[in-house]
Structures are given as structure tokens and as C-alpha cells.
């Protein structure tokens, strides 16, 4: 399979060949988990893939429908997932984070007793008081004499989340608040029985490929933050559902060659946000991002991902947003000059960013 074919197939799986209908849940369900440490970024990732949604639609899914939540899952990073995918993903990924979390808490000067007191207070407070933003958690913990400076607070909250006690759910005053997982989600927050781990690994492999195929076992292991043996076990469990390609690539056999765009068709230009799923879903960022352009899109070598604009499916520029009241300005910085038709299409994307946020595009 040549790079163009990989780009076409991955663009289809990533919903970058067309926008789908069905609201925010539809896009998240296809991608399975969307990296979510930057709230404005993951919202724009949904905008680029789902037809006609608005930021308010996302707020409703988080706050009223409770169909989407954010938690520390894959690779110990915040991810947006559908509520019914949260329990089994947490059960698979949380055990890989426990040792690192304990080590970081110790490095932040917290004793095991302080950690237990802090996590217990977080759980009790969320259960009794309801949604709480990070500042409220910080003040309460500090009032108990528990250190919250530096990274102590975030790793205490991390501990509560990977124990299945808390998730990020509703929007409160423009900020996403933490909630008690079971109080917010009901019995659906409970992890599956441990004897269903093989079933969960199979579901992980199937769903990862639905949103990222074609890919390799190492791609899956890196994306999920799981041992390679687990990725291989999941893929073996669904082997009858897969098609194999050169280089160890596999994809769902149910994805027909004619699904989405054809190889002769051009992929539509897109304005994609920082940490877009198309840049963090595999071990290698090509073919979405050319290796020569990586320093422009990822200037720190991997820690900071800038928003990218794609032309024919490939990153061709970075871009940025300036918000001022009910207005928004979008600046596009091409890696190399591109034709007026592509720029016009990206201008249309900028107008859609403004529409999504309920603002007016200027400039």
C-alpha cells in the first residue's frame, strides 16, 4: 500500500473525507477517544468532522445528555469519550497509570496518607456537592492542609480519576467541572468484570481500526498506551474481521475500497486544531504531516502540537485564532504558497469555525 492509499483510507476512517451527521456523539464514537487536554482544540476537532454542529451542541452532550465525558485514559492523557465507552476503556488503561501516578505524587511531596485523605475528600465532596471546578478542589484540599502547589493538585485529581471516582463532565460557568463518576453516570460508570478483559481488548482493536485503520499492532499499542502483547491479543481476537496489507498494516474488512473518497478524488481542505486525532493516532505522523514540515507543526519535537490546515489531506499550513467578544479572526500561515482555490476553501473553513462558536468572522 503506497502513501497515497494510506492517506485516503486513513482520511476515511478519520472522517476527514466528508462530514458525518448525528451530532457530537457520532464523531466521538467513530474515533473512540479524542485527546482532550485542550478544550477548545477537541471541540474544533469535532467541528471538522461532524456536519452542522455548534459549540452549544457539545455543551448539551456534556451537561444535559451526559453522553460525553472526559477522563485520563489512553497514555495517561485526558481523552473525550462516549459515556458508554468510558467504563471499559478505564478498566483497560487505568492499571498502566497507577505506578507512575504514585511516583509523581511522591515527587510532589505528598505522603501516601495525604494522598488517601485527598482522594477521599475529592470523592466525598463531589458526591455531596455535585460538580466542582478545579479551583474549588484546590481550595478544599488546601484547607485540609494537603499540598496543592506545583503539579500536586493535578496528580491528586488524576489519582481520583484513574480509580474511577471522578470524571470531567458538565460545563459550569464556561469551565468543565469534575463530577462523581457514579453519581453522574449511574451504574453505567461501573467497570466491567475483570474476566471480560479479553472482550474489551477485542473491542479496543475493532474500534481503534474503525477510526484509525489501516494501522499496525504497534500503532494500536502506542495510541492506547498498552503493552504490545495486549494490542496483539486484541487484534488476534478480531482477526476474522480484518484485511491485511504490506508492512504489517491491517484494517477492517467491512471498510470497502469504495467507502468515502476514491483514490482519484481530492480530499477536502480542513482547518484542524492542535492535537488533532490525525496527528496522534499512529507511531508515525506521515502521510498526514510530511517529516520535513514537522518542526513547523510540532516545534518542540512532540510536546506541543499546533493547529494545522490540510490541503489534499496533507498538512500545508499552521493557523491560529484570535477571539475578541463576539468576533473571531483566523490567520493561516502556509508552509509554501498554495493556489487561490485552496485558500478560498480554507476561508470557508474559517467561516465555519466562526459559525460553530457563534461568532462573526473578521479580517
Produce the secondary structure layout.
Layout: H1 3-13, H2 24-31, E1 34-35, H3 39-47, H4 55-63, E2 68-72, E3 78-82, H5 86-93, H6 98-107, H7 112-129, H8 134-143, H9 152-162, E4 166-172, E5 175-180, H10 181-185, H11 197-212, H12 217-224, H13 228-237, E6 242-244, E7 250-252, E8 270-272, H14 277-280, H15 294-297, E9 308-311, E10 314-324, E11 327-334, H16 340-357, E12 360-362
Q: Gist?
A:
By secondary structure, this protein is α+β, with helices and mostly antiparallel strands.
Notable traits:
single chain, 363 residues, Arc Repressor Mutant, subunit A, five-stranded mixed sheet, three-stranded antiparallel sheet, 16 helices, 12 strands
Description:
The structure is a single chain. This protein is of the alpha+beta class and 363 residues long. The chain has helices spanning 3-13, 24-31, 39-47, 55-63, 86-93, 98-107, 112-129, 134-143, 152-162, 181-185, 197-212, 217-224, 228-237, 277-280, 294-297, 340-357, and strands at residues 34-35, 68-72, 78-82, 166-172, 175-180, 242-244, 250-252, 270-272, 308-311, 314-324, 327-334, 360-362. It folds into three domains: 19-189, no CATH class; 203-252, Winged helix-like DNA-binding domain superfamily/Winged helix DNA-binding domain (Arc Repressor Mutant, subunit A, Orthogonal Bundle), CATH 1.10.10.10; 270-362, no CATH class.
Mean pLDDT: 94
Largest pleated sheet: 5 strands, mixed
Number of helical stretches of at least 4 residues? 16
Order of SSEs, N→C?
HHEHHEEHHHHHEEHHHHEEEHHEEEHE
Number of strands: 12
- The chain-level structural class is alpha+beta
Q: Structurally, how many domains make up the residues? A: 3
- Rounded to the nearest angstrom, the distance between the terminal CA atoms is 42 Å
Amount of beta strand:
15-25%
Radius of gyration (CA) equals 21 Å
**Order of strands, widest sheet:** 8-9-10-11-12
- pLDDT < 50 runs, ≥5 residues: none
Helical amount: 40-55%
Amino acid at each position: 500500500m503506497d502513501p497515497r492509499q494510506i492517506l485516503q483510507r486513513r482520511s476515511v476512517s478519520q472522517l476527514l473525507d466528508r462530514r458525518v451527521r448525528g451530532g457530537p456523539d457520532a464523531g466521538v464514537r467513530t474515533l473512540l477517544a479524542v485527546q482532550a487536554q485542550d478544550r477548545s482544540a477537541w471541540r474544533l476537532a469535532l467541528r471538522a468532522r461532524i456536519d452542522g454542529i455548534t459549540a452549544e451542541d457539545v455543551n448539551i452532550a456534556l451537561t444535559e445528555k451526559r453522553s460525553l465525558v472526559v477522563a485520563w485514559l489512553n497514555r495517561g492523557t485526558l481523552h473525550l469519550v462516549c459515556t458508554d465507552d468510558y467504563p471499559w476503556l478505564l478498566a483497560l488503561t487505568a492499571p498502566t497509570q497507577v505506578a507512575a501516578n504514585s511516583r509523581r505524587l511522591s515527587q510532589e511531596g505528598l505522603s501516601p496518607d495525604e494522598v488517601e485523605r485527598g482522594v477521599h475528600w475529592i470523592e466525598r465532596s463531589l458526591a455531596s456537592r455535585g460538580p466542582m471546578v478545579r479551583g474549588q478542589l484546590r481550595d478544599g484540599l488546601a484547607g485540609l492542609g494537603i499540598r496543592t502547589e506545583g503539579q500536586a493538585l493535578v496528580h491528586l485529581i488524576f489519582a481520583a480519576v484513574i480509580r474511577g471516582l471522578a470524571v470531567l463532565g458538565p460545563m459550569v460557568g464556561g469551565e468543565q467541572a469534575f463530577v462523581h463518576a457514579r453519581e453522574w453516570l449511574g451504574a453505567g460508570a461501573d467497570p466491567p468484570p475483570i474476566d471480560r478483559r479479553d472482550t474489551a481488548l477485542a473491542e479496543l482493536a475493532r474500534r481503534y481500526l474503525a477510526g484509525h485503520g489501516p494501522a499496525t499492532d504497534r500503532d494500536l499499542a502506542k495510541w492506547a498506551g498498552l503493552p504490545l502483547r495486549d494490542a496483539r491479543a486484541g487484534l488476534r481476537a478480531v482477526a476474522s474481521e480484518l484485511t491485511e496489507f504490506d508492512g504489517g498494516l491491517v484494517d477492517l474488512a467491512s471498510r470497502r475500497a469504495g467507502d468515502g473518497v476514491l483514490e482519484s478524488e481530492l480530499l477536502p481542505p480542513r482547518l484542524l486544531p492542535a492535537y488533532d486525532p490525525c496527528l496522534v493516532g499512529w507511531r508515525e505522523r506521515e502521510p498526514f504531516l510530511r517529516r520535513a514540515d514537522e518542526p513547523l507543526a510540532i516545534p518542540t519535537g512532540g510536546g506541543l502540537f499546533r493547529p494545522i490546515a490540510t490541503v489534499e489531506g496533507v498538512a500545508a499550513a499552521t493557523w491560529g485564532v484570535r477571539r475578541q467578544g463576539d468576533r473571531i479572526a483566523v490567520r493561516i500561515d502556509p508552509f509554501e504558497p498554495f493556489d487561490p482555490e485552496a485558500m478560498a476553501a480554507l476561508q470557508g473553513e474559517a467561516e465555519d469555525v466562526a459559525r460553530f462558536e457563534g461568532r462573526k468572522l473578521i479580517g
